[in-house]
């Protein structure tokens, strides 16, 4: 109960184009004592975070100008659906990680499809977790460590030494990246904007794989079906928390 | 009928929906998220599911009625329906959607039309069942009782 009070300070921005899934994730998060804001698209999420979409379209200007990008409400974590019309969850993740002011916000991706390449792509791009939909209460336990991380980072007095260290580290990373680029072009090198096309072909290729995964998921769910008595201890456990 | 009897009737009915595969564990998750502060959560979410499904089924009927069927569009609708049915635990609708998507990939119009009928049928079935379940709940509440919070499957 004391824990719940502390966690209620964490604010989660949930992004999903489906109103049903927005309702669901909102309840899940509130039940877990988080503050929640829901939006129905990636561009609205960026707007809420204070990053305007058109600022990113012109590559010659910096994606974020430090002055007008004042984030009014602190967001401790963004949880977004992957498959959305217009800006996908992956696009949103990239925009957040490319922004100097937003990149520290942890991002979690949700998807109804278990596509391994999609999962690894999101994790490589900096997503903290990948949840398979429908998201369950037990999944939300995985959010806590990520939020504490950002919180403590913000609360800590950043000393000059730390800044120096991080600069050195950044410098080293840049060097490594440069070396990498010189040696061999990596597959995850900056991708062109017309990214949705290769994505679709990948999706098509994986239709059959998906079927297999769906079956896997089905058997998993059958394992968790109400006939088994596994559900009972789980509920009583949750009941004592609430 | 007293409240206790109504509650037992509710439990038996809910159980039958799981045993016949209309609902899966996700529906239990929804029930778990319903509490005194949100006493209508399940009804609210399921009502959204009804609205959403009816819109999608209408769109699908229209899309498959065209001369040149846009299978990408059809697949996108089925994908949405699969997502929402899985989010509320409407298992048989979800399974019908999975089969449907395979025929979208094959661009098989006849099979897609059969799948649409199948999905419509499963949707109507689960809608009726859920409405009956909610009616039983209303009767319990009207009689001053509370809806059983936990479904016991051991008996």
UniProtKB/TrEMBL annotation, chain A:
Superkingdom in the source lineage: Eukaryota
Entry keyword annotation includes Transcription regulation: yes
SUPFAM superfamilies (UniProt xref): CheY-like
Low complexity composition-biased segments: 169-186, 199-211
Spans annotated as Disordered: 169-242
This protein's record includes keyword Phosphoprotein: yes
Every Response regulatory domain range: 11-148
Pfam families linked to this entry: Response_reg
GO BP of this protein: cytokinin-activated signaling pathway; phosphorelay signal transduction system
Residue numbers carrying 4-aspartylphosphate: 81
Keywords carried by this UniProt record: Cytokinin signaling pathway, Phosphoprotein, Transcription, Transcription regulation, Two-component regulatory system
InterPro entries on file: ARR-like, CheY-like_superfamily, Sig_transdc_resp-reg_receiver
Described purpose of this protein according to its UniProt entry: Functions as a response regulator involved in His-to-Asp phosphorelay signal transduction system. Phosphorylation of the Asp residue in the receiver domain activates the ability of the protein to promote the transcription of target genes. Type-A response regulators seem to act as negative regulators of the cytokinin signaling.
Family: Belongs to the ARR family. Type-A subfamily.
Entry protein name: Response regulatory domain-containing protein
Automatic annotation (TrEMBL), chain B:
One of the record's GO cellular component terms: cytosol
GO BP annotation list: cytokinin-activated signaling pathway; phosphorelay signal transduction system
The keyword Phosphoprotein is assigned to this record: yes
Single GO molecular function: protein histidine kinase binding
Phosphohistidine: residues bearing it: 79
Family matches, as Pfam families: Hpt
UniProt-listed CDD domains: HPT
Statement: the UniProt record of this protein carries the keyword Ribonucleoprotein: no
Coiled coil segments of this chain: none
Ranges for domain HPt: 38-143
Keyword field: Acetylation, Cytokinin signaling pathway, Cytoplasm, Nucleus, Phosphoprotein, Two-component regulatory system
Tree of life domain: Eukaryota
Localisation: Cytoplasm, Cytosol; Nucleus
Free-text note regarding domains: Histidine-containing phosphotransfer domain (HPt) contains an active histidine that mediates the phosphotransfer.
Purpose of the protein: Functions as a two-component phosphorelay mediators between cytokinin sensor histidine kinases and response regulators (B-type ARRs). Plays an important role in propagating cytokinin signal transduction.
Protein's recorded name: Histidine-containing phosphotransfer protein
Protein source organism: Vigna mungo (Black gram)
Lineage, uppermost ranks: Eukaryota, Viridiplantae, Streptophyta, Embryophyta, Tracheophyta
């Amino acid at each position: 109960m004391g824990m719940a009070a502390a966690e209620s300070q964490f604010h989660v921005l949930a992004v999903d184009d489906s109103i049903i899934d927005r309702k669901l994730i909102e309840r899940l998060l509130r039940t877990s004592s988080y503050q929640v804001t829901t939006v129905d698209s990636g561009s609205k999420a960026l707007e809420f975070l204070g990053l305007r979409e058109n600022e990113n379209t012109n590559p010659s200007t910096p994606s974020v100008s430090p002055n007008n990008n004042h984030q009014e409400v602190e967001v401790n974590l963004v949880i977004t659906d992957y498959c959305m019309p217009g800006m996908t969850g992956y696009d949103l993740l990239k925009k957040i990680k490319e922004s100097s002011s937003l990149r520290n916000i942890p991002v979690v991706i949700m998807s109804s499809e278990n596509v391994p390449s999609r999962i690894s792509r999101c994790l490589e791009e900096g997503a903290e977790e990948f949840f398979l939909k429908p998201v369950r209460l037990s999944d939300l336990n995985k959010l806590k460590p990520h939020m504490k991380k950002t919180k403590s980072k913000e609360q800590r007095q950043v000393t000059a030494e730390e800044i120096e260290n991080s600069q050195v580290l950044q410098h080293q990373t840049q060097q490594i990246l440069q070396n990498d680029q010189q040696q061999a072009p990596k597959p995850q090198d900056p991708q062109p904007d017309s990214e949705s096309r290769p994505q679709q072909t990948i999706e098509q290729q994986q239709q059959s794989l998906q079927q297999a995964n769906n079956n896997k998921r089905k058997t998993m769910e059958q394992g968790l079906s109400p006939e088994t008595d596994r559900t009972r201890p789980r509920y009583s456990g949750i009941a004592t928390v609430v | 009928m007293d409240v206790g009897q109504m509650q037992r009737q509710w439990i038996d009915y809910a159980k039958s929906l799981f045993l016949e595969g209309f609902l899966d564990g996700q529906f239990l998750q929804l029930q778990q998220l319903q509490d005194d502060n949100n006493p209508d959560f399940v009804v609210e979410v399921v009502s959204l599911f009804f609205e959403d499904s009816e819109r999608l089924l209408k769109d699908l009927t229209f899309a498959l009625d065209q001369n040149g069927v846009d299978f990408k569009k059809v697949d996108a609708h089925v994908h949405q329906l699969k997502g929402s049915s899985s989010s509320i635990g409407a298992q048989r609708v979800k399974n019908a959607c999975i089969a449907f998507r395979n025929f979208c990939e094959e661009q098989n119009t006849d099979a897609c039309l059969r799948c649409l009928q199948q999905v419509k049928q499963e949707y109507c079935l689960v809608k009726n069942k859920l409405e009956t379940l909610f009616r039983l709940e209303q009767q319990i509440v009207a009689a001053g009782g509370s809806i059983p919070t936990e479904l016991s499957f051991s008996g």
